[in-house]
Amino acid sequence: MAAGSIEHEGPDMGVGDFVLLSDITMNAFIKNLKLRFEKGRIYTYIGEVLVSVNPYRDLPIYGPEYVKSYKGREMFERPAHIFALAEAAYRTLKQRSLNSCIVISGESGSGKTEASKIILRYIAAVTNISNQAEIQRISNILIQTNVVLEAFGNSRTNRNDNSSRFGKYMDLHFDYKFDPIGGKIQHYLLEKSRVVKQQLGERSFHSFYQLLYGENNLQEYGLNLKPEDYYYINQGNCCKVPKIDDRNDYQQVKQAFKIVGFTQDEVSIIWKIVAAILHLGNLKFTDVDGEHCSITRSNDKNDQLKWISKLLSCEESEISSALTSRVVAARNEVIQARQNITRAYYGRDALSKALYERLFEWLIKYINKTLSRENNEQSDYIQRAIQSSLVIGVLDIYGFEIFDNNRYNSTF
């Protein structure tokens, strides 16, 4: 796409706003969308709605010259672009002192998460240069949180190698000078069932594979098996994906942890929990008499219960009791009843999903603490400012998928 195309789109580029189509039919809509895509125009308006087509390649349309072209402009002064949408939200904030929200929706793999990153980068680029250090701090943290949250909340699906398996809502807080002073992230509907089960051709969350392929000292976590030998992550039969560099991604996540502010001990605990879940997936039970069961033990270095207790800092007896028995409250009595092998496996999977969900929630909480600077000496001022601040919200809900055979959780 030539630099001059910022200013003008000729008729050979199709119609830049579907509202202006003379023939309002599905065929005309698709024909115009296809024509614009073939000409390198991935954005088209429908009034104030922006339609984006994922090109699955880098386009030179997000550089400083494009930021400058859209800064301070009305939405329809320039060709359709995500910068125009972000600018419209920011102008609403500045000119009318109104909060706004950008909702990003679409199929899995349509580029929603990338769109949210582009919006953040644009807002960081156009805000007050006099407060650039603070703006850069918040922007950098938000960008690095994407690295962390993608590792722990994204996975490979049959449609997308980096599919968000949770919904994310980000609040960007602005002070009276319309400079970012903080942010907050909320998450929705983490697909925790993916921790223990995946469809053929899909993977669990990236974090498991990043640890196994990226960590040089796996013995520290008792991970002595090949990735494809861990039950929780091998059911999709695609532990290794050609287009995903888990080893490099692991290093990026470690660097992101550092930038966001996690301590070395906290990072170690995070990966210990991930490793413990991998061990839980390989934990097996032995049927005793049809009604009772016990944990199958081994005397070698791959004893799962030993490593689970070590990584979670629990006693082996506590874990064994929690998985092979249950507490029943009856009237004024509390009875500990033994579980059969089927219930024990259900309990194991439930524990694994709960551990991962709690870990994910803790990551979000920690990130929000960093964004709001609760640990900073200026926290009182920042907190008061945030309470009266203006907000731009960005909702990035995970994409929907439609197959011949669909799962219940695909409908959410």
From TrEMBL:
- Alphabetized Pfam families for the sequence: Myosin_head
Coiled-coil portions = none
Ranges where the Myosin motor domain occurs: 13-412
Q: Which InterPro entries is this protein grouped with?
A: Kinesin_motor_dom_sf, Myosin_head_motor_dom-like, P-loop_NTPase
Write out the residues that bind ATP: 106-113
Q: Any idea which UniProt keywords this protein has?
A: Actin-binding, ATP-binding, Motor protein, Myosin, Nucleotide-binding
Any one of the GO CC terms: cytoplasm
Record GO terms (molecular function): actin filament binding; ATP binding; microfilament motor activity
Q: Does the keyword Transmembrane apply?
A: no
Q: Name one GO biological process term.
A: actin filament organization
PANTHER family xref list: MYOSIN, UNCONVENTIONAL MYOSIN ID
The entry sums up its family as follows:
Belongs to the TRAFAC class myosin-kinesin ATPase superfamily. Myosin family.
State what protein this is by name.
Myosin motor domain-containing protein
State the taxonomy lineage: Eukaryota, Metazoa, Spiralia, Gnathifera, Rotifera
